[in-house]
Amino acid sequence: MAHFDDLMAYDRETQALAAIMGRLSWDQETVMPRGAAEQRGEEMAALEAVLHARRVDPRLGDWIAAIDEASLDDFGRAYMRHIRRDYARNTKVPARLAAEIARVTSVAQGIWAEARARDDFAHFAPTFEEVVRLRREEAAALREGTDHADLWDALHQDYEPGSSGAALEAMFGALRPRLVALRDRILGAEAPKALSGSFDEDRQMALTEGLAGVFGYDFSRGRIDKAVHPFSSGSGLDVRITTRTNPEDPLNSIYSTIHETGHACYEQNISPDYLLSPLGAGVSMGVHESQSRIYENQLGRSRAFTEYLYGQMRETFGDFGIDSAEAFFAAVNRVTPGFIRTEADEVQYNLHVLMRFDLEREIVNGTLEIRDLPEAWDARFAADFGVTVDRISNGCLQDVHWPVGLFGYFPTYSLGNVYAGCLHKALRADVPDLDAQLSRGDTTGATGWLRDNLQQYGGLRAPRETVVHACGFEPSELPLLDYLEEKFGAIYGV
């Protein structure tokens, strides 16, 4: 046990340093001066070099070899599973490469934001090519000695351990036909009335902060700020979220905030016994996304909760042109063609992700060159959505993920939706009066169930096992598809 204690003490310091690096990233996206980007890149590279040296320290290998895992409890065995996996991956990546990736992706974020604002892909393309080159080099190192099918699979393990492109391709192939058929039926029907008018942005922020609290976000261990692309950051005792406001679209801010609150509550509700350990964060991005999506959609966009939210909207903005809670429910769930993934309705959201999944595999595996990406994106978008992309900021520059090298991340959004569909089915079976609670703005039955059955366990189990433990059955795409067809079939009469 002495070796295990030494390992835990060492790793706790590494986890603390990684949390500091995460705070630097949060600062960069919220309050850092624009002119500081180059220096921040150097800072991130320096800290990454320190972290990488700790993560490949030979003592880790000695401790791993010396520890008798048969003598450990469930926590200890799960701890060692994470440590072994991370050590095996980290020792494959040269320190030079890890530091350079940290530097380049930090700088790339600012250049992407400028290019997006200017609708100028050429401004970002050289930097993007460097990001892709570095990630391909990393993927080649990580793939060595494994059975990963390609470079993309090797990178995907950082976000969804145990998953593969082939398995996702099969799942997404089962999702697509029913999603497309449902969308086509809906778009052939009369659309409900949409929100219109101007909504004060300060009032939007006040409303969204209140909603974060309604869903259980602990402000004593977090805060809400604005960012270009909403995100959640941190774990344990410091978990921060961001949102964005648009005076013409308060629903964007509302549901971005509820979405990020789902991520944040997962982190805040992990057992404090796991603090600053490999178990003290969400087990995968797919499981993480299941929490944000079930908060945002199955709960936040439900007929019951929108009844409560309608009252909150009237209190905040007065008469905003929607004359009933039922009409507001339909407006919240309105299905319309659009370019932006984060603003997409539930029916079309996964089609955005499936498109990105295919394109990024081509980028990483070298069958799609960066110079050809805008044309490939626009052609695929027209084929999938029947709409011509009007400008690059509504096309391949809209998301921050690729610019900062997060290849392998996008499919976890749809995987999270599948998991959320399964969790929602199990939740409703266990909390039969859920709708009555939600209509009063009481989410504790739902959020408590998620906390007790999934969130508190953090990384104790593997990702898929985490969902199976919570649901009591193997995940599949069917609960999500059944939920979408029932909900939107009723709204649109199709």
From TrEMBL:
Active site as annotated: E260
Binding locations of Zn(2+): H259, H263, E289
GO molecular function annotations of the record: metal ion binding; metallocarboxypeptidase activity
Cofactor annotation remark: Binds 1 zinc ion per subunit.
Catalytic activity: Release of a C-terminal amino acid with broad specificity, except for -Pro
Membrane-spanning intervals of the chain: none
Biological-process GO terms, alphabetical: proteolysis
Keywords annotated in UniProt: Carboxypeptidase, Hydrolase, Metal-binding, Metalloprotease, Protease, Zinc
InterPro entries in UniProt: Peptidase_M32_Taq
Obligatory cofactor(s): Zn(2+)
Stated role: Broad specificity carboxypetidase that releases amino acids sequentially from the C-terminus, including neutral, aromatic, polar and basic residues.
Protein name in UniProt: Metal-dependent carboxypeptidase
Native species: Celeribacter indicus
Phylogenetic placement of the source organism: Bacteria, Pseudomonadati, Pseudomonadota, Alphaproteobacteria, Rhodobacterales
